[in-house]
Specification:
This protein is an alpha/beta fold. The protein has nine helices and twelve strands. Helix 3 runs antiparallel to helix 4.
């Protein structure tokens, strides 16, 4: 997972310690060899752990507690020193330029470092356990009156293995919440697994409760993690794993839509809407398994189409011009997982990274999901969305 950036990580670990050692610790009269060794031991330990992660062929460890522990080490022992060193260095240069003696950068750096530790601890402990139920009403032209008030419960990005041994009770609560929302339709927008299908087997009974309890159709699509891009093995093994996750979703009572669509009928079966689902439409390093033409084949021009697509990045450039989907449901971004004063990292990559977007009466909703490969959330709670369709007059 970190092999490509291991040099950057090592520099980020070493340079702040080196700066603090050279500028502050060495000037103390009682800073002897043994104290220097004690100062550098945690740094050496974190470097060794980082190298072990980089040498591992696995994208992520089977036990996510190992990865969480490592990232907490970085967040608690490395990040504050990076922040302090940057602030201190800037303050020092300010003192040199203006010929002053008091370095305000040290004070600001200490304060921000303390805040960063609080944020890291919160993000790994309390943040992932928070859940928002978001209610959204979407007016749709020509929506048959029999579907006026139709409730679609959307969830995404379960990343089931990230719940294992960490917060399995949270997963059970999420499923209970979905059932309690009394949906007419349930949609899952992809990324059920982290790496491979074997992670999911222990949760088969739990996940099958979504369809059993609600007794409504559960439609799903595959996300980038549901393919084999993060797996180790031959092409044959990877293809077999991709087949297994598709069989798994069907075995738990879900209707997996892999570049295809199904009709959802009103109780009197006089009216219908189309629920379509594409394979993941990735760009760059993410797999592109989508086929919009195949997905929409046989769909009539006047049909009301709700499209599931894990990755929202091509909504405007590809889905809008090549389909008549009035509503696209996506995940993938996790809402950035971090939101500080309205700034999310995904905002700089995705035109629509979270929430509702509209263009010419057609809509996209991007959910922040219920999980993540790295279970860290700061200002972006997990989310289950209730989308209520309304007939637009």
């Amino acid at each position: 997972m970190i092999a490509k950036i291991i040099i950057i990580i090592i520099l980020a670990i070493v340079l702040p310690d080196l700066y603090i050692d050279l500028h502050y610790l060495r000037h103390r009269t009682n800073y002897n060899l043994w104290k220097r060794i004690v100062w550098w031991i945690p740094t050496i330990i974190i470097i060794v752990i980082s190298i072990c992660f980089a040498l591992s062929k696995k994208f992520a460890p089977d036990d996510m507690r190992i990865l969480v522990g490592y990232l907490m080490l970085l967040g608690i022992f490395v990040l504050p020193k990076i922040i302090f060193s940057i602030c201190s260095f800037l303050g020092w240069r300010h003192c040199v330029f203006h010929k002053t003696h008091f370095n305000w950068g040290n004070v600001i750096g200490l304060f921000l470092s303390f805040i960063s530790v609080i944020m890291v601890v919160y993000g790994f402990t309390i943040g992932p356990r928070k859940l928002n139920v978001v209610n959204v009403e979407i007016p749709i032209k020509r929506l048959p009156q029999s579907f006026n008030g139709l409730r679609i419960v959307l969830f995404s990005d379960a990343h089931i293995n990230s719940f294992h041994n960490i917060m399995e009770d949270r997963l059970i609560d999420d499923i209970d919440t979905i059932s309690a929302l009394k949906p007419d339709i349930i949609c899952f927008a992809g990324d059920l697994q982290d790496i491979q299908p074997s992670e999911l087997y222990r949760y088969k009974n739990i996940l099958s409760q979504i369809a059993k309890k609600t007794k409504v159709p559960v439609y799903s699509v595959l996300g980038n993690h549901d393919y084999s891009m993060y797996q180790i093995g031959t092409p044959k093994i990877k293809a077999e794993n991709e087949r297994k996750i598709q069989e798994y979703e069907k075995a738990i009572g879900w209707h997996l839509l892999n570049n295809e669509h199904k009709a959802f009928y009103s109780p009197n079966r006089k009216d219908s809407i189309i629920i379509a689902g594409e394979g993941n439409c990735g760009t760059g390093r993410f797999p592109n398994k989508s086929d919009i033409k195949k997905t929409m084949r046989g769909v009539k021009k006047n049909d009301i189409v709700i499209l599931l697509q894990h990755d929202p990045i091509t909504w405007e450039s590809r889905i809008l011009p090549n389909s008549n989907a009035v509503l696209t449901l996506s995940g993938h971004t996790h809402g950035g997982q971090i939101n500080i004063f309205g700034l999310r990292p995904t905002k700089f990559i995705y035109p629509n990274d979270h929430g509702l977007a509209e263009k010419n009466g057609r809509y996209l909703y991007v959910t922040s999901g219920i999980g993540a490969l790295i279970p860290f959330r700061l200002g972006v709670p997990a989310e289950i969305t209730v989308i209520t369709l309304k007939t637009k007059k």
